[in-house]
Amino acid sequence: MVHVTRGFTGRHPATDDRLPPGQYLTDDFPVLSAGPTPAIRRDEWTFSVTDGDQALRSWTWDEFMALPSEDITVDIHCVTRWSRLDTTWRGVAIDDLLADVDTAAEYVLARSYGGYTTNLPLEDLLDGKAWIAYEHDGEDLPAEHGGPARLLVPHLYLWKSAKWIKSLDLVEDDDPGFWESLGYHDYGDPWREQRYQGD
Ligand SMILES: Nc1nc2c(c(=O)[nH]1)N[C@H]1C(S)=C(S)[C@@H](COP(=O)(O)O)O[C@H]1N2
Ligand SMILES: [Mo]
């Protein structure tokens, strides 16, 4: 007699390999926001890179849309334990935004419209690892998911992917952002389960 169990036939090793410890797969796209969704008009939107008091770069929406953009397919992992595989986005690589920028800073504080912040090492935004994304699933990024544009850093827990991004501030110190100052991990690597400070 042959017993075939659902648990056995339903396993997809390739998928399991892509699921960090303690995460489960979902096809939904839950909305997780610490406050209300800010209404940001594209004709009033600006995005800047700052270093100290200096704005190194600043773009209007039209200027930003004229930058080279790329299609992005990535897995995303939320600290609340859901993961989605092969999510699709369009956006501008941070490498392109920071090209030719000279800085001694080793960290970035991402700042959002509405006041949210999150801290990251600068190197985690470079070498094709992070984008400012303005489309998801072939559509304009919905406001509740961070539209007009959000930071996308898929190799770290999703709270690092600041929605409604306003600026990237190059900073010398790794000062905690919003969730980090409330106990979330300063780095947030899902593969090392760095959920909370001390993990
Ligand atoms: N500006 C801003 N960005 C944010 C948040 C937020 O509250 N405000 N929440 C973070 C958290 S905790 C998560 S899990 C993801 C959720 O993104 P989503 O709502 O598109 O799923 O956004 C992150 N970026
Ligand atoms: Mo989150």
UniProtKB/TrEMBL annotation:
Residues 35-179 form the Oxidoreductase molybdopterin-binding domain. Residues 1-20 are annotated as: Disordered. It comes from the Bacteria. Transmembrane segments: none annotated. PANTHER family: OXIDOREDUCTASE MOLYBDOPTERIN-BINDING DOMAIN-CONTAINING PROTEIN, PROTEIN-METHIONINE-SULFOXIDE REDUCTASE. This is Sulfite oxidase-like oxidoreductase. It comes from Nocardioides luteus. The lineage of its organism: Bacteria, Bacillati, Actinomycetota, Actinomycetes, Propionibacteriales.
